[in-house]
Design a protein that fits this description.
phosphoprotein; 5 strands; five-stranded parallel β-sheet; about 120 residues; 5 helices; Rossmann fold; Bact_response_regulator
């Protein structure tokens, strides 16, 4: 069975590129374009991993991460932040809240795939 990935990102072109790439690698990819919908989808569908931007409409990625990490069902779910926010304070905040990885935009899809595969393997 394909691993289910939830992508929470509001940049349409980036969403399309990531979805097509991950689907071509055998992943089942679900998407949300704002934080509130992303949190709701995560809680209802319990994906195998979450890839999330920080700057999102309705609820930011840090709030999503913090909320999910307080739920026992998501304690070990890989959570990868994708963000253009490259400040050390943002990276530190994301990792302290429980993100498994913080990837700065722009990034290569191959690098994202390697990070995702590693964290999915480690979460089993």
């Amino acid at each position: 069975m394909a691993k289910r990935i939830l992508l929470i990102e509001d940049e349409k072109l980036l969403v399309e590129n990531i979805v097509l790439f991950l689907q071509s690698e055998g992943y089942d990819v679900l998407t949300a374009t704002n934080g509130a919908d992303g949190l709701k989808m995560a809680q209802e569908l319990q994906p195998d991993a979450i890839i999330c931007d920080i700057l999102l409409p309705k609820m930011d990625g840090f709030a999503i991460l913090e909320t999910l990490r307080q739920d026992k069902r998501f304690e070990t779910t890989p959570f990868i932040i994708l963000s253009a926010k490259a400040e050390k304070s943002s990276i530190k905040a994301g990792l302290e809240l429980g993100a498994d990885e913080y990837i700065i935009k722009p990034f290569s899809l191959d690098d994202l795939l390697k990070v995702l595969a590693t964290h999915l393997e480690n979460s089993n």
